[in-house]
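Hey L., structure's done. Input below.
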Amino acid sequence: MVRVRFAPSPTGALHIGGARTALFNWLFARHLNGKFILRIEDTDRERSTLEANKAIFHGLEWLGIDWDEGPNTGGPFGPYYQTERLALHQKYAQQLVDEGKAYYCFCTAEELAQRRKEAEARKEAPRYDGTCRKRSAEELKAKLAAGTPYVIRFRLPPVGETAVDDLVRGRVVFQNEVLDDFVILKSDGFPTYNFACVVDDHLMEISHVIRGDDHLSNTPRQILLYQAFGWALPKFAHLPMILGRDKARLSKRHGATSVIEYNGLGYLPEAMINYIARLGWGHGDQEVFSRQELIEFFSLDGVTKNPAVFDMEKLKWLNGQYIRKLLPERLFDLCEPLLIDAYGRHDLAYMKKVVAVFQDRLVLIPEIVGLSAYFFKDDFEYDPKAAEKHFKTANAKVILTTLKDRLAALEPFAKEKIEPVFKTLAEEMKLKLGAVIHPCRLALSGRAETPPMYDVVAILGKEKVGARLDKAIAAL
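Output:
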């Protein structure tokens, strides 16, 4: 069975890169009817926080990425918090020591820092020099008996090469001589990332390790650990890095990078899922995918080796496409609290009409507040450029006065009755329809652009329309 995992460290919120790793693993599992496991790698005790842990859950849940095994779900391969697996890590580290494949290292931090400094002075790459690898059995026994603090280091093969047959990048070969005897268990008894990752992936029967390519350099060390234990290797797939539009590595300066921040900015989770899926993966020329299509089409064959570019403008465009598809009820549920906060409570049916008329114009949900202001406030000013163009014509006053009188006489005050008023007036005055609509639009909204004029008139209602036309006429 295909078993994949997302294994975040709870040291901060779920960011775009982590969300993509989670999504690609989730899509891979769902496409192949496999299992998606969430494992929290919380062994960095200084930086791991409960708040960050909750933020990861929140981000995944908002995106709709559910897990088959993991925290709050359970499963047959738990526990799913790494700190609750320490006994397992320590057991397997000791096994490597007992088999002569790892050893105790008593070198102090100060000694290691001095050796690094000396290596740099010789213009050599800093790496562990193997001091404790060469200790005699008597010396080792004495230090252990004296309670000298130690770490456990992996006994790396000093020559040869380690190849990674990557499902995205192809075959990547590393020379063992550029690696060193890396630490697998720290002096506090906690495992290092590379070691815990291997032990947990093996015990959880992970079949594919799909992660960012910043982990590619870790992979030869992990492969050597698998080989030392005699365990079968999972298949590796390293995803391309994500860059900003300036081709620098994605960071906060490129925009919000915490996934949940996008919720507050007015992005829809389905738009985010669609956009994140396209960061380094594609299916022909298709841009907009339903969740089911993503599951149906996803494969690692569609993942590119080239860096992906995070483009906020494209994300906004995609979000707009999803807003167009929303059911009116859901769009209103998203917009209502923002409108109430900005303008107080109004008649529910009125607010629903206002939201509906902007559905084809919204790119981000919070834009509803600014776009719809004139539906809730009467004390707006007229756009100066529009006023110069549409209020200072020879016919402006006649147009607005005639519209006011004819609209006031309409019964019922409905869109199908409103439209003929404008068209008839344009014909009578031998004007283009726009010459009638533009000054009215400005009078009713203060703006040069609004949703369709007949909708605006109908929603505002007879009383507000009359009052605003009166105000504009008085200003001419």
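The longest helix spans residues 453-475. The chain has a mean pLDDT of 95.

-- N.
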